Amino acid sequence: QVQLQQSGPELVKPGALVKISCKASGYTFTSYDINWVKQRPGQGLEWIGWIYPGDGSTKYNEKFKGKATLTADKSSSTAYMQLSSLTSENSAVYFCARSSTGFDYWGQGTTLTVSS
Amino acid sequence: DIQMTQTTSSLSASLGDRVTISCRASQDISNYLNWYQQKPDGTVKLLIYYTSRLHSGVPSRFSGSGSGTDYSLTISNLEQEDIATYFCQQGNTLWTFGGGTKLEIK
Known about the structure:
Chain A is mainly β. Chain A has strands at about 5, 10, 20-25, 35-40, 45-50, 55-60, 70-75, 80-85, 90-100, 100-105, 110-115. Chain A is built from no helices and eleven strands.
């Protein structure tokens, strides 16, 4: 069965960078986009961008250009999102999700806390 | 950018009720409208894609309809396990989510 397993919670200092992972299993990793979504506490969902692991192509929400960098490792079927120059505004839960007909499978979410 | 609006942020209903949640797009999205359920533990699942198509494994009490800019999700015969927040999402141009509608039991 399709599964997306994300890395654990992160506590990082302001100004630092962090890299969150999303390991896929149960399907052909290179055939579907992986999307990343942000959710601040008590807030809605915000689409950050997608990566197509087949060729590494990416598309970003304009709001997250320069903040998020999406990569994928075909050998380990793992997608990554790096967030840089972190501030308290980046504290949130981050989800990865496969897109097919909509976002049909989601990871469990990774909680990022930015605090000194 | 396409904006998605769910005007009802929270909704209270009784078990067995028929519940309708609405979503409006800022422009015609040609039925590229999906619905998601987020449970209190944070897990997110796709319920409906392309306005009215039920995702695999989703109970038939969930249904979707709409066109142009206006869409809705209906839950017939509300069950306890349906307590969650529901988000719409447009996929006509990139991806944008609505703000969510939290469904509670009366």
